[in-house]
Amino acid sequence: MQPVVLRTPRLVLDLPREEDVDAILAACQDPGIQRYTPVPYPYERTHAEAFVTQVPKDWERGRHVTWGIREHDRLIGTIGLYRMEGDGNGEIGFWMAPEARGGGRLREAANAVIDWGFSSEGPGLARIEWRAVVGNVPSARVASALGFRYEGMLRRALVNPKHRDDGWIAALLAEDERMPQPWPVLEN
């Protein structure tokens, strides 16, 4: 699969580049990113360099596709569709640099990725899953706002270098209306 550039009113989603290594390294020092995403720990410059090198290879294989999220040509996060096995399923994943959180940028980027993921120009997925460590309320709020339906909790299913955690799971089907959804774990 060839890399695709996606554009929204404020953002450009394209491949992470060598000049993004410092921004990736800085963002991945954030305790929230380290706690709630499967980045290496401790996160070092070599990890960011390897990530930038690996992304185009992953696109070629078509199983994992990742974009850098850019605002004014500055990398502010990453987003991707992962575990696409040719069965019509995929999983969305993302992180935003701490200074870029809020303001709807992540929802804007995610909507573009979801549109592409369900489209015939993209992989034509039937189902996109979202998973997060129980307690990652900001990520859950984004997924809920995107229309993902909460499906439950997976016991000790999510693993990162420091933890094995229970995980929330939700999904969006290609035919679902993409309106904000109530989730029992977000009530209160």
Automatic annotation (TrEMBL):
<protein>
    <submittedName>
        <fullName>GNAT family N-acetyltransferase</fullName>
        <ecNumber>2.3.-.-</ecNumber>
    </submittedName>
</protein>
<keyword id="KW-0808">Transferase</keyword>
<dbReference type="Pfam" id="PF13302">
    <property type="entry name" value="Acetyltransf_3"/>
</dbReference>
<feature type="domain" description="N-acetyltransferase">
    <location>
        <begin position="11"/>
        <end position="175"/>
    </location>
</feature>
<dbReference type="InterPro" id="IPR000182">
    <property type="entry name" value="GNAT_dom"/>
</dbReference>
<dbReference type="InterPro" id="IPR016181">
    <property type="entry name" value="Acyl_CoA_acyltransferase"/>
</dbReference>
<dbReference type="InterPro" id="IPR051908">
    <property type="entry name" value="Ribosomal_N-acetyltransferase"/>
</dbReference>
<dbReference type="GO" id="GO:0016746">
    <property type="term" value="F:acyltransferase activity"/>
</dbReference>
<keyword id="KW-0012">Acyltransferase</keyword>
